Amino acid sequence: MSTNLVLFFTRGVSLRTWGMMGMLQREIAIYRRLMEHDFNVSFLTYGDASDVQYTEELGGIRILCNETGLPWEQYESELLSIHSKALADCDVIKTNQTNGAQFALQAAKMFGKPLVARCGYMWSFNWQREFGYDSPEAVQARSVEETVFRAAEKVVVTTEVMAADIAQRIPEASPKTCVIPNYVDTDVFRPQESHRIENSLVFVGRIAPEKNLEALLEAVSDLPVTLTLIGEGRLRPGLQKRFSHLDGRVSWEGNIPNMQLPDFFNRSQIFILPSLYEGHPKTLIEAMSCGLPVIGGDSPGIREIISHGFNGYLSGTDSKSLHAAIRDLIQDAELRLNLGRNARTTVMERFSLDNIVKLEMAVLRQAIAKA
User: Fold this and answer.
1) Which end of the chain has fewer CB atoms surrounding its CB within 10 Å, N or C?
2) Rounded CA gap, 136 and 127, in Å?
3) Side-chain-side CA neighbours of residue 13 (13 Å)
4) By its UniProt entry, which SUPFAM superfamilies does this protein fall under (predicted)?
């Protein structure tokens, strides 16, 4: 017998958003695998009728969107009635992130369905970092987290650090919290027989304050390396202007489809993620899956993945420390080789899509049984 799953997208996010950011294929991979195990999947999005254009790419995943083009506020307020039939017919509701999870909780209560509250990063933590602990944004995020996590049948986070935070702040949610890391399709992200460009670095991520790209650009200024930056964000124009003297050595690629990343990874010598904090960074484990030696900031979310000197290289997040880490790796081919091999092994053992699908199915079925 099939299991009907409705996934609530992050508030304001559409399939078009995923497509423009180049992350569509990555995000749908696990749901297409679930469909191979008798799950019927529906995506409840905030997109307009243009989301329907992704029907073929989704390969059978049903799209629930704002097809009539209602004003955004009206669509959000009428979300549950607009999609009432799909919600009434489903067996389980899941959130993709916490922002907007309050609507998934309303749907679960209204239609008597179990809720799996999943988040890939702690929403409140990000707002605290950006706006301060007592900011309205952080207060609201904590309120949603506490309400949703208390009420959900299961809570899914991507790291043990996040699970520990829930145990400390919302102890009654701790027994039903489990860790399911982000996944990598290791058949797509794999080492290839290709020439790696000497002294080349690649970064993939948003051009945002927490990614710490200013320090990275300062670090490479007087090193004999090239740097490819993949991603978009509000800091890009200012950084490009400030570091225009690096034109020719620094390439700004913008967003690219996720399926093109293996080619960039396999022709680069080092992947670098100098972030001040992360949740469970997908681009890091994708680079590792390609056997690429990685440098990561010694920061939350990164240090839980990288074991320094074994499957990657941890660095301080200041420009001098990043400079030293890059210098160490470009000068030591044997170290790069060993780090890359161990990185691939780590991903195969801990983050492969095949393994994560099994964990995902178990949690969904536990939530249904509990309800």
Assistant:
1) N
2) 9
3) 21
4) UDP-Glycosyltransferase/glycogen phosphorylase (SSF53756)
3-state secondary structure of 332: coil
Looking at the structure, do residues 146 and 245 belong to the same domain, yes or no?
Answer: no
How many Cβ atoms sit within 10 Å of the Cβ of residue 134? 8
Is residue 30 domain-resident? Answer: yes
Q: Rounded CA gap, 40 and 366, in Å?
A: 17
- pLDDT tens string 142-161: 999 999 999 999 999 999 99
- Structure-token pair, residue 73: 């506020």
8 A C-beta contact, residue 186 and residue 346? no
DSSP state letter for 247: B
Give the C-alpha separation, 356 to 4, whole Å.
19
Q: Look at residue 188 and tell me if it is in a domain.
A: no
Please indicate, yes or no, whether residues 216 and 360 belong to a single structural domain of this protein: no
Residues 206-243 as b/e (b if ≥16 CB within 10 A, e otherwise) read bbbebbbbbbbbbbbeebebbbbbbbbeebbeebbeeb
Tokens of 4: 């009907």
Enclosing domain of residue 273: 200-350
% residues pLDDT > 90 (the chain)? 97
**Can you say whether the dihedral through the CA atoms of 237, 242, 244, 249 is positive or negative?**
negative
What is the CA 365 to chain-centroid distance, rounded? Answer: 23
* C-alpha to C-alpha distances, 237 to 37, 240, 241, 242, 244, nearest whole angstrom: 46, 5, 6, 9, 10
Helix H or strand E encompassing 270: strand 270-273
Question: Is-contact 212 296, C-beta < 8 A?
Answer: no
Structure tokens at 189: 């992200």
Q: Give the bridge partners for 115, in sequence order.
A: 93
Count of structural domains within the chain: 2
Domain identity same for 135 and 26? yes
Position 23 in a domain: yes
| 20 and 50, same domain (yes or no) | yes
Answering whether pTM is above 0.70, one says: yes
- pLDDT at 271 exceeding the cut of 90: yes
220 found inside a domain: yes
Residues 207 and 337 grouped into a single domain: yes
